[in-house]
Amino acid sequence: MTDRPAPGSISADQAPTEIVAATRRLAAALEALEGAVERRAEADRDEDELASRIQALGADRSRLADELDGSLVKTRKLERANREIAQRLDAAIGTIRAVLESESVDEEEPS
Question: What is the C-alpha separation between 28 and 9, in angstroms, rounded?
Answer without folding.
Answer: 24
